[in-house]
TrEMBL record, chains A, B:
Gene (UniProt): purK
PROSITE patterns, alphabetized: ATP_GRASP
Annotated protein name in UniProt: N5-carboxyaminoimidazole ribonucleotide synthase
Catalysed reactions, semicolon-separated: 5-amino-1-(5-phospho-beta-D-ribosyl)imidazole + hydrogencarbonate + ATP = 5-carboxyamino-1-(5-phospho-D-ribosyl)imidazole + ADP + phosphate + 2 H(+)
Membership in a protein family: Belongs to the PurK/PurT family.
UniProt KW ATP-binding keyword: yes
Domain ATP-grasp, first and last residues per copy: 115-303
Enzyme category, top tier: ligase
Species name: Gracilimonas halophila
Length: 386, 386
């Protein structure tokens, strides 16, 4: 049922306590909602510094999570680490609804089922095959060419669980490393010769669906370093991506916030690469960049509130991921230039320790021209050490 | 010293745990800063639901607050309930700096000293007199006319501590009620025949000063019901108000965020009515209405970070205070229309109990035309029960 009121002490529970739950929590607080958090680490998780209602336990223990869920009005996810079976059991035993629903999540947690689900909905996906042994690895290479990707069907995070293989020796080693010899389902995925990676976020619940602008995710070594919105591609491509993202969310009957990453091929077609049933790094720019952020629509969606406008606040938005530059106690240093820049917004995630390449913070700059805005955002953050 | 870095676990302590500290905390969290809160109530204060670092004690106990302050890197205020003498002692004994400084606060906590300070800086203030007895009350009425205001020099909050007196009988009664017979300093203040009430926020620290647009505060029965920005007055009046607010902040050597309320007289002159050394209800519209909110500049200012732009994000902003409509457990009801309105932003303060007239929430609408925006904001919030 759509919610038309916000009662005192309404409590939103997050399974996971990292920066995504943190940014959603900030929005929950704006609505006067209380936040409870369940983490598999006992301390120093970003959200644990933001609420008195913090629990730790195992993401594999139904009992731990049932206890937690009973104290909450609605549960939501910030990662894909908990299996849909466990989520379903937690929901049934606690009586507390979980959104996105375990049924939706079941359609995307396994990369094989995910691809089948989206293909069935008419959404182009990367050419793939479930590979069982050396000869199938070899066949895939012959058909689609080397290199290709091997992925654990159980998914991963930020490229973990994915391996690029250049030849059959590589492929055998990766197959084994990913657990292929121990019964894990391993997918081979053809390399797509793409010109850009695009992303679209979608919020959906019983009150409707809203689709964010199509943005570009700029990657270096498979890590997203920047996001540009709107994506510097033709309008028709943007709209195609938005349409596919809309269809994908329908296909899994999603309630919550979802993100979809696409390859734009040289021929100008779009292929769905990945999906995520949660706020996504590609949508951090929406905090200041759009009328309603992905985090606000996350909270609205899972509570059944009407969804907010996804319109851009300025013609151009650039978001720079500030990745750890040192292994040390976290410290955002040399931030003066970024803070002094008009329309620039710094977000630091409150992590206690920095590691090289770890997502520690981000910086969003709004402007009128995309290229200039990106250039300036890069420039004013270039000396930040974090 | 200006701060150029944000170290992990930097802790900002708030003396006071209401909605103002809450909204500043939300910004502190965005910078990865931890929030600790000291309240004179042991539970159910808005910020207490937002941090594991919550302490309660007395605002009159130096010891209670020293203990709290020792655990923080910087202390700031959300109210005017603690005397500057006590703040100074807390600062000295804990070694933790307090901003705005006790010295700045000493210049405005007492309404008599406040008026003298601002007069000395060339800022027009409401005609006033320290009244000591019945005959001085009578004299004031003769000189400035009835009715006039009696105010406890120790100040108040939302009109508490202020009494309008219509004749000498009223005046004697109020004088006694406010403690005039027990040695309290009581100020008589002439009624100013004003056409509008205006407000300006200023953030200032060692890196510079930024001044917000001049806004209008719309009052009903001495309670602010709406804020319109920019104020619908001539540009020259707006600039005069901004200039006076700038000068007032210089006069108290303020470090932090400050708000000033002015009367605009029929003759087009400005008179400073009140000042506040903290985020202020008149500046809530800045959360979405300006590039950098008063809460972000509050956090930046007290930490010594460079201050952010105060430019409006859209030509017109209207903020509606959502005051309690019932005495009941808090619940924001009938909010659908407000949430569905593009560029509308609902903020609920997380209070547990509602009382008629209590500040429970606010709603900000951005638009292109001030009158239309105000009309629409009023319209879409008209049925909210809270």
């Amino acid at each position: 049922m759509p919610l038309s009121s916000l009662p005192a002490k309404l409590k939103l529970g997050f399974l996971g306590a990292g920066q995504l739950a943190r940014m959603s929590s900030l929005q929950a607080f704006r609505f006067g909602i209380q936040v409870a958090v369940f983490s598999d680490r006992s301390e120093n998780e970003p959200v644990q510094f933001m609420t008195p209602f913090s629990t730790s336990g195992s993401f594999e223990s139904v009992d731990d999570m049932v206890e937690f869920a009973k104290g909450c009005d609605v549960i939501t996810l910030e990662n894909e680490f908990i299996s849909s079976d466990i989520l379903k059991e937690v929901q049934e035993k606690s009586g507390t609804p979980i959104y996105p629903s375990p049924d939706s999540f079941a359609l995307i947690e396994n990369k094989l089922i995910e691809k089948q689900t989206f293909e069935a909905a008419g959404i182009p996906v990367t050419p793939y095959k479930l590979v069982k042994n050396e000869s199938e690895l070899e066949d895939f290479g012959k058909t689609h060419g080397w290199p290709f990707m091997l992925k654990s069907s159980k998914g991963g995070y930020d490229g973990y669980g994915n391996v690029t293989v250049k030849n059959i020796e590589d492929a055998k080693q990766a197959f084994s490393k990913l657990g292929g010899n121990n019964g894990e389902d391993i997918l081979a995925e053809a390399f797509v010769d793409f010109t850009k990676e695009l992303a679209v976020q979608v919020a959906r619940n019983e009150t409707g669906t809203v689709v964010y602008p199509c943005c570009e995710t700029v990657q270096e070594d498979h890590i997203c370093v920047a996001v540009l919105s709107p994506a510097p591609v033709e309008k028709i491509i943007q709209e195609m991506a938005q349409e596919l993202a809309f269809k994908a969310t329908e296909a899994i009957d999603g309630k919550g916030i979802f993100a979809y990453e696409f390859f734009l091929t040289k021929e100008g077609s779009l292929i769905l690469n990945e999906s995520a049933p949660r706020p996504h790094n590609s949508g951090h720019y929406t905090i200041e960049g759009t009328v309603t952020s992905q985090f606000e629509n996350h909270v609205r969606a899972v509570l059944g509130l009407p969804l907010g406008s996804t319109r851009l606040n300025k013609p151009a938005v650039a978001m720079i991921n500030l990745l750890g530059t040192h292994k040390r106690p976290a410290e955002a240093d040399q931030i003066t230039e970024a803070l002094e820049t008009e329309h620039g917004h710094l977000h630091v995630y409150g992590k206690v320790d920095s590691k090289v390449g770890r997502k520690m913070a981000h910086y969003t700059l709004l402007g009128d021209d995309l290229e200039e805005t990106y250039k300036k955002a890069t420039h004013v953050t270039r000396e930040i050490e974090i």
